[in-house]
Amino acid sequence: MADQPEKPSKLGELRKRYEWLDHLLRAGVGYTEKHGDHYAAAITYFSILALVPLLMVAFAVVAFVLRAHPDLVLQLKNDIKSAVPAGMDVTLGKVVDQAIASGGTVGVIGLLGALYSGLGWMTNLREALSEQWGQRDNPPKFLRRLFVDLLALIGLGLALVLSLAVTAAGGLAKPVLKFVGLDHVVWLNPVIQLVVVVVGLLANSLVFLWMIARLPREPVTWRSAAKAALIAAVGFEIIKHVMVLYIGKVTDSPAGAAFGPILGLLIFIFTVSRFLLFLTAWAATARENMVDTPVEVPGPAVIRTAVTVREGLGSGVTAGLVGVGAVAGLVLGTVAGLTRRRS
Questions:
Q1: Which residues constitute the domain of residue 146?
Q2: How many CB atoms are located within 10 Å of the residue 250 CB?
């Protein structure tokens, strides 16, 4: 009896029927095979290491530039505090206040420390994203890598500033309505709330788009990165709300009140890092990015037969034969002499 063909599993049938499920499982396999969790842990470590000095230098510069507009500095501070889960905003608020108060004493040493930690964070983030995109080529030379990573760090900083500016502009909608005398219109309030949420999501998606598409060592397609960036913006908001509930539970105990914010910050950054790398793997495993690069066919092999003709015996062979003859003559002479004596 002929062997019956193996029946596909239920999961295999579902993967064939639903492309989104097959894509999700491909992303999970790619994330695992390319050590996503290990890279997320490294990003978390360098994020904690770089967070305080970068915030201090950034706000020292902002406070110096906008010292004539303290209301703008306060608005920027509130936007950053609102971007993290509850409980961590107090810790970051103290860092920001200290940075503003010591804006004139940051100095060159503080700037160099911030650049060093920031470059370490950016290097690990770029290596992690490049690995998820399958870019395993040798990294550029040391000095060139530092220069490119510095440009990427500045570019990401500008993207964050742009995102915060867009979010702050969305928050000004209500004061503008009050200024023009339309704050009493009831139906405008939910519309404004919806606009603020949409604007915030778009601002966050721009940051994630820059990270997914332009931070890898080699540029990638905007199409797949744009889909992943939009999902990342929505997921980021969900993660923030979940972390608010988590930190609220953790800080109920005395030990949680003492260590809850720093543990919450670690878990928050690790979760966001894993989510970002998984979405990068999801973008890298899209159908349009999985086309195999054709391998060039080598040219036809050419076989050449080398024939060497020698006339007569060579000097080495002649010397060898003479030596063998001399030894043979000596042996035969000795044997003949012994035979005569016996006879």
A1: 41-289
A2: 19
- Largest CA-CA distance found in the chain, in angstroms, rounded: 147
Q: Which residue has the tokens 């009896």?
A: 1
CA distances from 8 to 14, 15, 29, 85, 110 (A): 10, 11, 19, 45, 61
Neighbours of 86 (CB within 10 A): 18
Do residues 118 and 54 lie in contact, with contact meaning Cβ atoms separated by under 8 Å? yes
CA distances from 220 to 18, 143, 209, 288 (A): 26, 23, 11, 11
**Residue 3 main-chain phi, psi, to 5 deg:** -65, 135
Q: Count how many Cα atoms sit within 13 Å of the Cα of residue 79 in the half-sphere of its side chain.
A: 24
Please compute the mean of the pLDDT values over residues 194-198 and round it to a whole number.
79
Residue 207 lies in a domain: yes
pLDDT band, residue 160 (cuts 50/70/90):
confident
In a domain, 326, yes or no: no
Task: Give the number of domains in the chain.
Answer: 1
pTM score, two decimals? 0.69
Give a yes or no: residue 139 inside a domain: yes
Q: Which residues contact 224 (CB under 8 A, 6 or more apart)?
A: 283, 284, 286, 288, 289
For residue 77, which amino acid is it?
A: K
For residue 105, give both structure tokens.
């004493």
3-state secondary structure of 318: helix
pLDDT attached to residue 39: 93
- pLDDT band at residue 312 using 50, 70 and 90 as cut-offs: low
Q: Quick check: 95 and 52 in contact, CB under 8 A?
A: yes
Per cent of the chain over pLDDT 70 is 56
Tokens standing for 47? 């994020």
Report yes or no on 277 lying in a domain.
yes
